[in-house]
Specification:
Elements (H helix, E strand, L loop, with lengths): L1 H13 L7 H11 L8 H8 L3 H13 L3 E3 L9 E6 L2 E3 L7
Antiparallel strand pairs: 1-2, 2-3
Helix pairs in contact: 3-4
Length: 97
């Protein structure tokens, strides 16, 4: 619990100069607060209550800004990590994988 609070604080300090929409902030906070689903376009759309196309644009924008980091291994249905700081990436998802 404490580490997720620290991660969230460090994340927002690290990315304080990056412009993100209110919707992007809301979904990022859901994941930073410990949501255990994988961070992919489908789950982003579900959390933000938007279409897959809109979610894809959000994810692409955050990837270009260095906030989201594509995880290796999948070509389709790519999962993303959240760049907490230069040396730490949070990869949301089930812990037993």
């Amino acid at each position: 619990m404490l580490s997720s609070i620290l991660d969230k604080s460090i994340f927002w300090q690290t990315h304080s100069q990056v412009v993100v929409s209110d919707r992007q902030k809301t979904v990022l906070n859901i994941y930073l607060d410990g949501y255990c689903g994988k961070l992919n376009v489908k789950n982003w759309a579900k959390q933000a209550k938007v279409s897959d196309d809109t979610a894809g644009r959000d994810v692409k924008d955050l990837t270009e800004k260095g906030i989201l980091v594509p995880q290796p291994g999948r070509v389709r249905d790519v999962s993303y990590g959240i760049s907490i700081s230069a040396d730490r990436t949070l990869v949301p998802g089930p812990k037993d994988e």
